[in-house]
Structure formats: structure tokens, C-alpha cells
């Protein structure tokens, strides 16, 4: 694991957990694999997140996906409103301030299915086949790369907990959601700090973005906030509420937020994994120091429960304990 020193204010510094997942020699049953695998687990247990240094994707894909996000988010509102989905956080959302949008997001569910990508792009550009074909190709290629990264992280985590026998079942039951997001300052030109800290309801989330800073991540064990400095090959891997329950609280869901200081737009991509079936804590994760803390639950059921809560409760991981926790 590579640690980069970051300033926290005053004379205090912290080490940002950056793990290289691009090494061509990173293969199972090697010393490098074992070291990296253990670093991933350590970072997830200590922080609830880590930064993956990952460049196993075609040159130009980073710029292409950001251009696709901008093109999509620049569409008229009446078109973006067609992105409907009954699942929480899966369709079009917007946050307004003084009548102006300061945050927008659209979602493509089952994004690794090219037919789903094609259906979404035709919905957004029904009369422009060139635009919707180009968008579909870019998004599908990007989602394929992100799924490979997510599955690499999963293989390492499952192996580190000696539950690798469940890996293929997990991968086979995974549904991926890609969200394309835009953030801006307040209409009066002041920095936007109104985005509340929250946890994701996913199993794993992977965040990627343009060059505009603003993402902040809370370290679970240190109880401090880190500022993320973006680059095209850096992906923030975040623990969601579902992996917290699956791991029996060994990994805690990560609180994160965005604070917009820049006058430029911040475009980001959120790649979220969800399980189609029942999520159960493996028996190997239960012992005298970690008594079983969660009942088995359906991931979509957690999302439905989320929709019933008041806004101030939705952001917190305590909702998962309320939904399926063992008293």
C-alpha cells in the first residue's frame, strides 16, 4: 500500500491510503497479490474506503466518459426527467437552490448489459442515432472496466476473510448501477457546503471524476475527514451499507460528502454494486468477538426501506441496523 501524506489543517498530517491495483504482476498466489489483498482489507477496516491507483483501461476513456456525462447532463430537464426508476437513487434527481440546480444526477441500471445502455441512450437521444450509439459505446466500455475493478476488490476481500468459496456466487448475483453526476457552487457564487455527509446503500461504490476537487471522506477509525485529490487513474473504493452487514461490522460503511469551492463544474461517475438475491453474513465472519449482528436481507428491500424514512435518517448507516440488525 502506498501512503501519501496529506495536510489536514495546522501542523497535522495524515496518510492517504492509495493502493496500486494496476501492476501487471498482480496475480493470485503471488507475494504481491497477498500483500495487496491484505492492504485492501486493512484499508477497508480502518477507513471504510481507499484510493485505487488503476490504469487498466484504454487511453482516452476517462476523457470520453466525462464528455458523455457533460453531454447527458446538458440535456433539457424535460428529457432528463424521462430517467425514471422506482428504486431509490436510481433515476434522475436534482437539488435546487434559489431556483437553480446545484446538483443533478442520472442513473443507468444494469449498465453492464449493452441492451440497457442502448435503451437508455435511445431514451435520451431518440432522434439522433449517432449520439446515442456513441454514448452507449462509451458508457458500456466504462462500465466493463469498472466492473473488472470492483470484482478485483471483491476477490481480494473475500479471500482475505477466507470466504473465497462465495466469490463466484457474489459476482454472478451482482447488479451494477452507473450514476453520472454534476455539482456546482451556489447561484450567488458562494461555495456550496449544503451536501450532507451520507453512506451509500450499495455493497461497494467506486467514485471517479474530473479534475475539480470537493470530495471528502471520513476515516472510520481516525474519525477525521480526508480531502480527495483527483486524477484520471484514481478511483475511490467505498464500503456501502450492504458490505457492512455482510462483514458483520468488520467493515463500516463510509461517510462521505462533497463541498464545492470551485467556480467550474464538477462532473463525477458513481459505480454502485447491488446484490440481486439475499445477503447473509457468512458463518466464517461470526465468532465470540463478532457475534452475529444482522439478519439475512434482500438488497432491494433495504432500498425500499430507505424510501420510507425521513430525509435526516436516510443518510446514516444506522438505517441498516434498524432494517435488519439483531437487537
TrEMBL record:
Belongs to the iron/ascorbate-dependent oxidoreductase family. This is 2-oxoglutarate-dependent dioxygenase-like protein. GO terms for cellular component: extracellular region. It comes from Arabidopsis thaliana. InterPro entries: DIOX_N (IPR026992), IPNS-like_FE2OG_OXY (IPR044861), IPNS-like_sf (IPR027443), Iron_ascorbate_oxido_reductase (IPR050231), Oxoglu/Fe-dep_dioxygenase_dom (IPR005123). Keywords: Dioxygenase, Iron, Metal-binding, Oxidoreductase. Residues 174-277 form the Fe2OG dioxygenase domain. Probable 2-oxoglutarate-dependent dioxygenase that may be involved in glucosinolates biosynthesis. May play a role in the production of aliphatic glucosinolates. GO terms for molecular function: 2-oxoglutarate-dependent dioxygenase activity; metal ion binding. PANTHER family: 2-OXOGLUTARATE (2OG) AND FE(II)-DEPENDENT OXYGENASE SUPERFAMILY PROTEIN-RELATED. It comes from the Eukaryota. SUPFAM superfamilies: Clavaminate synthase-like.
